Amino acid sequence: xxERPVRQPADDLSLPxxxxxxxxxxxxxxxxxxxxxxxxxxADKCVGEFALGETGVSTGLPEMSPAEAAAxxxxxxxxxxxxxxxVIPEAWRAxxxxxxxxxxxxxxxxxxxxxxxxELAEAARRNDRRLIDVRVPPPDIxxxxxxxxxxxxxxxxxxxxxxxxxxxxxxxxxxxxxxGEEADFRATGQTGIMIAGGGIPMDAVISDFEAGAAEKLSPxxxxxxxxxxxxxxSLFNPAYAAVSLGLLHGSQPDVxxxxxxxxxTMILGLEGFALPSVEDVIDLTIRLGRLTNPxxxxxxxxxxxxxxxxxxxxxxCAAESERLGLPVxxxxxxxxxxxxxxxxxxx
Length: 347
Description:
CATH class of the largest domain: Alpha Beta
CATH architecture of the largest domain: 3-Layer(aba) Sandwich
């Protein structure tokens, strides 16, 4: 998966590469999704990983200290954690200072600004290193206008957070390009932006400008051009539905793909809130999406079947496809099910 997945990123960034991936002290793999995303989709830009102790979480890259990574050619340490609230805890800061002392820049996609911590700001100044915050939206976003734009758009939506919207969008983009379609991957979260080299962090945009940010991210294009847009959150998530709705209205997708983890029953991190059904997500997405694109349709469903055997995953996708009347596939596994999903999206 090391091939660069996008040709023309929006709002280009210049990030120092290659990376050392910092896993912090997280013990839940879902909170290290930035590190996993970079390891899976930009492995050629990563030299290793660095964790604080034996956490049990690993991307499979070589374990390295910041000094070892610098000696191996790393230019920056990326905070590979996306924790609740996007915070930089005190327990990490000594390690971040060590990385700066070793000659690495620090790249962060968290809400906390790196330079807001005096010890980091001072270490960066002393070592002539950069503190790079990716989760900063561009300054010239306007409110959305709802005007129908030229070109075609696909948006990934979810039954919840952290279950495959980014991976699905990247896989679909790669498949579109392989079939000769003109397509760009449009990143809307910190990990996607680091992979693509550009994008807009939608959850850092003021709510009044959310739809406008999505319009800016996916501007007018040639009639046959596809923007494959990374989804965020879920319309059914009590914490993050506002981001999901603004992204839906501003993206005005022609096609959407529902992303789902069939083993999950409750909203991640929010006790008492059951996961919605795929059918409920399809229905609500169409009803809300029609505001800015009356022709919106569901192209199919993406299942995250990691942890399942290939036989069980294939049987589940086939059964759900029959039940829903739509293609159902795990894009990471690919195979014929995914080809059918791509076919239906491109209709």
